[in-house]
Amino acid sequence: MHIVQFQHTRVPVEKYGGAQRIVVWLAQGLAELGHQVTLLAGPGSRVPGIRVVEVEADAVRRPGFDVHRYVEGPVDVMHYHGPVAHPPNVPYVATLHGNMGTAAPPYIICVSENHALRHGRDAFVYNGVRLDEYESRADKSDFDLFLARLHSAKGWRLAVAAAKTAKFRLVVAGGWRLSFSRWVRFVGEIGGTRKRELLAAARCLWMPVQWDDPCPVNVLEALASGTPVLATPRGSLPALVGRDGGAIGADLAELIALRRRLTDFPPAACRQRAERCFSHLRMARDYVRMYEHLLAHGRLPAGRGVE
Asked: Among positive and negative, which fits the CA dihedral 266, 272, 277, 279?
């Protein structure tokens, strides 16, 4: 099968950019499964092992877009990572990486079961990560980690409040902020080796989100690093964390209490959950199932949940 993906920005990203990482990992996973993959992406894009065609986003989004101006040979399906302003001249799908109104178009694939239910549909594929890019360590360090945009919806204030209340060391990695207190260390946006090391060394990842997060990549990265997750019961978080990847607490007091049980979630169990449920190859296989069902039946199938 020849699959053309479209990502409107440059890939890969060095620091923040969960959706862009998913695009890269999906392209590589599809190629590893034996499919032909062409990635249309912003100028400067380079992905090892993948044929990349650099395009300006407006050229793909304008009326009358012809994919064969950029890609030679037959195209089985075009996969957009974002909204489709004007349909292409080949079968297509689009992944919805954020939230929108319930009147989402029929070609949309959501990124978790909860995400799909909230948008009135049943087609979804959970995000997955390249497990070989993450190190799982049994010898954790003396700090917890918050790794996300410093936006109120991500719940960083709850994580900081917990560190000050329970007096544990917290490393905050995200957009710019001033120093918080003796218990909280701010390291700014991170990527590459620094990010991998912090994820592997942290005792846990704090994810006290205050919105319905569709399928946050940082949670999957933490599990791949053998790091349990403490999260609120919003969006896809209960399904991602499961029984063996950490714990779900409704408020600050519950999360602080659950933190005392981190030994119940050993690094090996977290890593095994990532291997079982959230690898880039599982994600790629589930998308192939979507493509094949669309081509055979003219509609998308129901997604497959995680245990």
From this structure: positive
- Name the residue type at position 25: W
Structure tokens at 293: 């069902």
pLDDT in tens, 61-103: 999 899 999 999 999 999 999 888 888 999 999 999 998 866 6
Strands 36-41 and 2-7: parallel
- Give the pLDDT mean for 43-70: 94
2-128+279-297 has which fold? Rossmann fold (3.40.50)
Contacts of 151 (CB under 8 A, 6+ apart): 175
CB 133 within 8 A of CB 122: no
DSSP 54-122: E--HHHHHSTT--GGGT--S--SEEEESS--SS--SS-EEEE--S---S---TTEEBSSHHHHHHTT--
pTM listed for this prediction: 0.93
Tokens for 262, please give them.
Answer: 């981190």
Which homologous superfamily is 131-277 in?
Answer: Glycogen Phosphorylase B; (3.40.50.2000)
Q: Give the span between the Cα atoms of 214 and 110, in whole angstroms.
A: 8
Question: pLDDT tens digit string along 270-306?
Answer: 999 999 999 999 999 999 999 999 999 999 999 999 9
**How many CB atoms within 10 Å of residue 285?**
16
Q: What is the pLDDT of residue 307?
A: 75
Where on the phi/psi map is residue 131: left (φ > 0), alpha (ψ -120 to 50), or beta? Answer: alpha
Domain positions in the chain: 2-128+279-297, 131-277
Phi, psi (rounded to 5 degrees) for 124? -155, 155
Cα gap 139→250, rounded to integer Å? 29
With b for 16 or more beta-carbon neighbours within 10 A and e for fewer, the 59-68 pattern comes to ebbeeebebe
Instruction: Give the residue among 16, 8, 15, 94 at the shortest CA–CA distance from 58.
Output: 8
